[in-house]
Amino acid sequence: MHELPLVFFTVLGQSAVGLFLLAYLARKMGSIDDKQLRVANIIGFIIVLIGLGIGALHVGQPLRFFNMLLGVGRSPMSNEAFLSGVFVGCAAATVFFTHFVKQSVLRELANIATVISGLAFVWSIPQVYNIATIANWNTEYTTLQMWATMFVGGGALAIAIGARGLGIAAFLLGTLAIFASRAGYQAFLSETGPALSAEQTGFWGFQVVVLVIALAAFVGFALKQRAPKIPLATCAAAVLLAELSGRIAFYNLWQITM
């Protein structure tokens, strides 16, 4: 629980990227309209700002964030900080050209830049944790769960704003990835950190239960022509809580290999 700022920073950031990506694709496919895309962009921007604001608490002093940028290109942490800033900047530009200075070309370019920089940001996150001295993190399962959060959290948010087709597909993909890899992940941790792994059972259990319930709820709502917004939003919030729980378990596995 000692890395809670990073828990919120990574989960909310990855989920926001998923929302920007899925909403943009859904609009291009014609499954949502411009109004729904605008709502998605605002929600995604707010979510990533919240994640960034909470994550800044990990730095201690705000000005230290700029010191983290000194290693861009050679330091995974610096790359993550830099790309998070680029993503937030592009997201801000998307919202600006959508709601304040309405320029369709600039809005489109900003939206594309947001999606691309967001994907680069998600890619950069697991690079920080693939550390040889921390055996519990130095595995492909770390990368898998970081990307899975983008699909699970982003998919749930996309469903809530109306992109039900792509949202459910992404949510299902991410959920299946988590479930299918869980046995192998547990087997890996039983060798590298059995005691710490056993302590995370409650966090992982909560994550799995909520994801199963949310999946059943989303499929049920998909069968209806008009799904109520409040239950969809509630399900999306529950999914984010589930991913936060799973990420807490991940950070609790920190242990330097002797």
Description:
- This protein has a single domain, classed as Formate dehydrogenase/DMSO reductase domain (Formate dehydrogenase/DMSO reductase fold), CATH 1.20.1630.
- Helix content is 81%, strand content 0%.
- It has helices at 4-29, 34-59, 64-68, 76-99, 104-129, 140-161, 164-192, 194-199, 201-222, 229-251.
- The protein is globular.
- The model has no long low-confidence stretch (mean pLDDT 90).
- The chain crosses the membrane at residues 6-27, 39-61, 81-100, 112-132, 144-163, 170-189, 201-223, 230-254.
- One of its GO terms (molecular function) is dimethyl sulfoxide reductase activity.
Jot down its keywords.
mainly alpha; Formate dehydrogenase/DMSO reductase fold; 0% strand; 258 residues
Provide a concise account of the structure shown.
The protein is mainly α and 258 residues long.
Blueprint (SSEs and pairs):
Elements: H1 4-29, H2 34-59, H3 64-68, H4 76-99, H5 104-129, H6 140-161, H7 164-192, H8 194-199, H9 201-222, H10 229-251
Pfam families: DmsC
EC number: 1.8.99.-
InterPro entries: DmsC
